[in-house]
Design goal:
Length: 120
């Protein structure tokens, strides 16, 4: 049926609560953000394990956003090194980090000191 029509309007199986599109409140470009990881995104497979992280290890900023009529606002993210995320996110997939939060060290750096380095 949909193949014969020139235009098909998709309908969500679950209605979204709250405003959408132009009426939806938008995040500003200066907020710090982590995003919700998909199952196995860091490990490279599709299984979700109890030990998996829920949010991205890196902190991002909003690179761009897209607002369309009757659609959720889409966000694309970029980190401090200029690496951008490959996919877009809706507001419910983003975790806003308050500006007064002390962030953990960047991924890949080991700030732990060896016992032999301590002068006791």
């Amino acid at each position: 049926m949909a193949i014969k029509k020139k235009q098909v309007i998709s309908q969500s199986s679950k209605t979204r609560e709250g405003p959408m599109g132009y009426d939806e409140p938008r995040l500003t470009y200066d907020v710090l953000i982590r995003y919700l990881l998909e199952p196995g995104e860091l490990e490279g497979d599709s299984k979700r394990r109890a030990t998996d992280k829920n949010c991205s290890p890196q902190v991002y900023h909003i690179k761009k956003l897209l607002v369309q009529k009757n659609q959720p606002v889409l966000y694309w993210l970029i980190d401090n090194e200029g690496n951008s995320s490959e996919r877009s996110f809706v507001r419910e997939e983003l975790l806003v980090i308050p500006h007064d939060t002390e962030l953990p060290p960047p991924v890949g750096t080991n700030k732990l000191r060896k016992l032999s380095d301590l002068h006791i």
